[in-house]
Amino acid sequence: MLMLKHYLDRVALMDEASRRQLEQEELTLALLHTRAEIARLQEREQLFSTLLGSVNAVLWAFDWDAQRMIYVSPAYERIFGRSAALLLAGYEEWRNNIYPDDLDYAAESFAQVLQTGAVEAREYRIIRGDGQLRWLSDKCFVSRENAAGKPHIIVGIAEDITEKKQLEGELHRLATTDVLTQSSNRRHFFECAQREFAQAREYDSPLAFLLIDLDDFKQINDQHGHQMGDQVLQRLAYSGVSTLRRGDLFGRIGGEEFAALFPRCEPALAAQIAERLQREVRRLRFSHEGAEFGLTLSQGLTSLRRDDETLDVLYARADAAMYRAKRQGKNQIVID
To answer: Which domains does the chain have, with CATH numbers?
Structure first.
């Protein structure tokens, strides 16, 4: 207070010219201060723009009540391969980018944000402007609730996770596929077979189990080498997959042993499929160092019975039938 009084007393003693000079000096100082603030704000805006431009994810804000996008970061054009101006002009542009099979899920999960406040587990596919199919992880949350006439504002971040999805797919393939023959490995085959068995029991639907053993495989390896033996197994697997119906299971469950499961398949039809596979494999011919040879199979086939409580029972019966085919001279199908 004393300093203010001293300043006012000083101003009161000044003549008019001195007062104008003082006012001019104060105005100049205020202008310099304003310019400095503007420069600082411009630096912040430039820094913010640089940061947004370097983030490899789409930051966005959406007016829920108006159903329009009110902000989208520069990464939108990189990830979507489309114009941000078109998106800001109409939200349908975002919806039109979504892969058709994922559109309903994307819309329903987005609407959940109003009830839950946030949705973090949203993954769906988009079609870029250049036709590429990409996976997005799109998280969103309510930034401002509707109150006093103000709109709901939803904000979010959409990240391209295509490479992650591809890696997951490759890891799944490696975990479920026999490396040599590219058919199901033993664990994956029996996991899938167990699910089919449970459904067949629940709905009282037919099911058939086929075990396939390549005759004299050790002799092929000994006479023609393991590389030729690998080719034989690959050709056999290809014949198996191409002979079976869509929805049937096929896998390599041992060295030269394969298995097939036929869901919703009556015994007579299962026998026809096994016979067709037998014929296809007999037609295969191989040549090594001037020697030509063919293949034969021993197969054991069985069908689900009312008293079969587990898949193991079905498997054991098919296994016993296959070994009877071996003992009876090979190159045949035994049905139990």
So the answer is: 58-168 (3.30.450.20), 177-335 (3.30.70.270)
